[in-house]
Amino acid sequence: xxxxxxxxxxxxxxxxxxxxxxxxxxxxxxxxxxxxxxxxxxxxxxxxxxxxxxxxxxxxxxxxxxxxxxxxxxxxxxxxxxxxxxxxxxxxxxxxxxxxxxxxxxxxxxxxxxxxxxxxxxxxxxxxxxxxxxxxxxxxxxxxxxxxxxxxxxxxxxxxxxxxxxxxxxxxxxxxxxxxxxxxxxxxxxxxxxxxxxxxxxxxxxxxxxxxxxxxxxxxxxxxxxxxxxxxxxxxxxxxxxxxxxxxxxxxxxxxxxxxxxxxxxxxxxxxxxxxxxxxxxxxxxxxxxxxxxxxxxxxxxxxxxxxxxxxxxxxxxxxxxxxxxxxxxxxxxxxxxxxxxxxxxxxxxxxxxxxxxxxxxxxxxxxxxxxxxxxxxxxxxxxxxxxxxxxxxxxxxxxxxxxxxxxxxxxxxxxxxxxxxxxxxxxxxxxxxxxxxxxxxxxxxxxxxxxxxxxxxxxxxxxxxxxxxxxxxxxxxxxxxxxxxxxxxxxxxxxxxxxxxxxxxxxxxxxxxxxxxxxxxx
Length: 523
Fold this sequence. Notes:
Layout: H1 3-27, H2 31-34, E1 42-51, E2 79-91, E3 94-100, E4 107-116, E5 123-130, H3 136-142, E6 147-154, E7 157-167, E8 172-175, E9 181-184, E10 189-191, E11 204-211, E12 215-226, E13 228-240, E14 246-259, E15 265-274, E16 295-297, E17 304-309, E18 312-317, E19 321-323, E20 327-348, E21 373-381, E22 395-403, E23 408-417, E24 425-448, E25 453-464, E26 470-477, E27 484-489, E28 494-497, E29 500-507, E30 511-522
Parallel strand pairs: 1-15, 13-22, 16-20, 20-26
Antiparallel strand pairs: 1-2, 2-12, 3-11, 4-12, 5-11, 6-7, 6-10, 7-8, 8-9, 13-14, 14-20, 15-18, 15-19, 17-18, 20-21, 21-24, 22-23, 24-25, 25-30, 26-29, 27-30, 28-29
């Protein structure tokens, strides 16, 4: 970077600082601000957060600092919240105007409700949401064709130039009182005589109120805001048992709350809703980039208490917490469950992506590529006797295993789970087995479309390169038609659903096992 560019960049930074100082100074003297009612003390805040994020679907780039800073925009956060403020406001009798500050920048103004708990006859006649906030660019735009003073620093000497601002593109163009034109590029600060009308330092709700009595009134304001979400993260530590297919796990659950709503919620009562709450989906907007600027951790104290709420589950934090704007907060969802029994399963699906047809499929080839990978799953019951038995919100599961050589935890897989009620099974896919492979092929095919029947014979080969035997669950999708019958088989099977059968197969160490079956379709 050239020396002149460095100097200009420094000047721009000084402008931002100077403009901020000027605004702060004006806040106490500008008549337009002085006319507003003095801010009142917020007595109580409660927030209920809803998540529309796909479990594990929020990339880390969304909530970690953007290099070099950036302009936050929480519209990219897939979630929303209902916020409730209880405050004491001074309201003049009759008709008056009240400014309500510290609301979220991404508030939905159509959801605002106002109630006076002291005087039910106090009501809102009109409401305005003012979100044109002060910035250097806004000040320059508002002061076009208006007088400003520019300062320039040369060593220890400071000079100032006053005039009417004609342009701020690529520098300042001022017209002096004598009509002369000055073009300034290396100015260090700008001074403005006042804060322009319409600009505010914080998003503000402005109400036109009617109150017969007036006076100090306790009010309750509620609204919905975007730019805030939550999700669950589960950390599992797997310990294999003496049986290769059995083991135990320790399960920890955490809640991550992302707040990019444009407001901070101090000492708030926090609730989380888990479930699929239907909302009207707005028209899609362009991609927006907002990044998180802070990460905080939560002290241990009273945790979440869950209960059924309508057809959903409500998690209420047993203590107050603070959710700063531009932050991610992590809170323990429930105490760690230890030594939960778990089962390891190898599953081979040769036609994992086979489509299901609404008419009999009589073509010889299925039209999809054969799969050779054998998937690895861990399964456990979400039940009380296993140390769980609580509703598990949808979230991301990370599974690690202890390396006995050095005592370190190593990641062995990651998956997502849907909302899981108690007493249901949780199944986590960890990846594909390295030493076990499968191969599926069609060995015979016959069809008579006039007689409305089709027969197909399938061969599945499983090869185990391990030094111990393995059990593999071969999953076959009978995709051709819903009316079928297995007419011959080398292994027993069980029916999973109307078009899926499963063959439990044991494969000896360093050996191959061949499974064959023949199925007849009729329609």
